[in-house]
Amino acid sequence: MGTAVAAPVLLSVRCRDEFVVEDLEWASVSLGLLREARPWRTFRWYKGQQHYSGTYWSATVGDHVVYESRLELGRLLFADFAPEVRHIVAQPFLLKAGLDGEVRRHIPDYLLLTDDGPVVVDVKPRRRLEKPEVAITFAWTREAVTSRGWRYEVWSEPNPHVLENVRFLAGYRRAWLFDPDLVGALRAADLDGMSLVDAFRLLPERPRPLVKSTVLHLLWSGHVTTVLDRPLSPAHVLRRAS
Questions:
Q1: How many Å apart are CA 71 and CA 75, to the nearest integer?
Q2: Quick check: helix, strand or coil at residue 191?
Q3: Quick check: 221 pLDDT over 80?
Q4: Over pLDDT 90: what percentage of the chain?
């Protein structure tokens, strides 16, 4: 679907003190300002609401990040798990552009600051992607985002096994809960090619539940990897992260 976005594209952002900076030129907005942005929409609960809202404590951010649906929570888990993601901002800004003589507005779901540059993410169920209004919004948003050399991503339902595995590993994301000496000992071990069950049996002088949870923490933190497109099992083989 073609778009004809009229310049300038404008951006508004909510700052930490709830002060709103409005109608900045998109092309010149600093990444530092967006990194510190507060969620654009007010977090709310009400009886009978159709979406599932909440907050997730992100190991990447070291703070809570909001989401407005279970699908958004899924994307948030994947971002927190990805070693290349260095920061996550929810509802980072309001984007405004002229499109075919009409003013369009859109609030993306996430801004990810990654090793490869900023990524603006919209989360939407696959069944809704073909709706004309959704397609038009995502098309002009993509044009605006990529005009800065940034990446734009529309994210829908992932592989369910990968999602459940990442959700499970997220339970081991809080680094301060793990004994630094035990973490160091397991990081020094050669885990490449070892099954999970064998890794759990390492260091027999230490309580096995602590060793097991620390191995899973190393899997979450990216020290080692494994195939996640099927349910995790003791037979899963660990590989050294590239």
A1: 7
A2: coil
A3: yes
A4: 83
